Amino acid sequence: MTSIPDAKAPAGEVVLEAVGLTKHFPVRRRLRDLLTLEPSSWVRRPAVHAVDDVHLTLRRGRVVALVGESGSGKSTIARLLAQLHPRTGGDIRLHGESTRAHGGAAFRRYCSRVQMIFQDPFASLNPTHTIRYHLTRSLRIHGHAGDDLDGALRELLERVQLTPADRYLDKFPHELSGGQRQRVAIARALGAHPEALLADEPVSMLDVSIRLGVLNLLRDLRDRLDLAILYITHDIASARYFADETVVMYAGRLVEGGDSESVTQRPAHPYTKLLIDSAPDPDHVARGVATVDGEPPSLVHPPSGCRFHPRCPAAMARCSTDLPVPLQIGDAPGHWAACWLYDQAGDQA
Ligand code: SF4
Q1: Does the C-beta of 308 come closer than 6 Å to ligand 1?
Q2: Which of 189-193, 205-209, 333-337 has the lowest average pLDDT?
Q3: What is the reported pTM?
Q4: Average pLDDT over residues 199-219
Q5: Among the atoms of ligand 1, which is closest to the Cα of residue 340?
Q6: Which of 169, 240, 262, 336 supports an S-S bond with 132, CB 3.0-4.6 Å?
Q7: DSSP letter for each residue of 77-115
Q8: Residue minimizing CA distance to atom 3 of ligand 1
Q9: Residues 65/181, Cβ–Cβ less than 8 Å
C-alpha cells in the first residue's frame, strides 16, 4: 500500500479519511460460463477492481474535487465513504476513528455526520411526498425537529435559497425545476446537521444555466457551515472553479492530486493533461464532458503496472510492469502524481 506525499497539510480539521480504501465487486458467473472453464479456475472468482488503494482526506471548510471519466470508480468511493457498500480493504476514519456502519443505529449515527447528495435529484426524492414531508423526515430522523418544526423547515429552505419557504413547502418534487429539486435534496442533507457532504455529480443532470448557482450554493454552505465537501465530477473545469483541492482518478486508482490551481493549471500526469486538453472550454464552468481518446480498460482484468499505459502517449517499458508510486511534483506543496516520468531516482539508476 502506498500513501500520498503530504508535503504540507492544508488548514482545516480532518473530518473524514479514506486510507488505502479498496473495493472489488465479485463477478457472478453463470453455470454455462463455468462449464467452459478449467475446473482449476472455478475457485478463482473474478472481480471488478472498482477502487484500489485510495487515500483521500476531507477537512472542515474545504472542498475536494474527485475528477475522472465515467466508470473510473468515483461514485464507488462516495458510496464507500457513505457506508452504502462494505469495503474490501483499507479503512474509513471519521475524526481519526475507524468506522464500519452498515445498518441500524450505528449507520444512523454515521449518516447524521456524513450525508450524500445524489446525481439525480428527481430519483432521490419520493414523488408521492411533499417537500415538507421530505425535510420533516430528515429533521425527525436526526433529532433536529425541536419544538419549532415550522421554523426549522423554513430555516432549511432559506439555507438553500428557496424563499419564501411557503412557496415550496407543500409542493411535490415534480412541481419544481431540476435546480430547485437539487436544492431540496441539499436541504434534506442539511437536516442532519452533517459535518461532511458527499456530492456525487450534483450538477451533471441540471441545465447548464443553473449549474453555477448550485455550485455557488455548495461553496456558500462550505463557508457558512464549515462543511467538508467531496465534489465528484467528470468536469475538470468546474473543479478548478469550485474546489480547494483536486484529485484525479483513472481506472480505480488516484493518479494525481494537489491544490486545484496546481493540478488544473500545471497538470503533471499524462491522463490529467489529456483530460484538460479535451475539456470543451476551461474558462466556462460545467460546460460539458471531457473525453479522452481510447477506451477505459477492463476493471476485471486491469492493465498491469500503470493502468493508463495502453492509452498513454508517454508510456515507457517499465510502465507496463511496475505500478507507479505517488511522487512529489515540483515545489507546489502537496502536488503529487503517480507516474514514472517523475521518478528521478529511477532516471539516475
Ligand atoms: Fe504514462 Fe508511464 Fe506515467 Fe503511466 S507511468 S502515465 S504509462 S508515463
Answers
A1: yes
A2: 205-209
A3: 0.88
A4: 90
A5: 5
A6: 169
A7: HHHHHTTSS--SEEEEEETTEE----SHHHHHHHHTTEE
A8: 339
A9: no
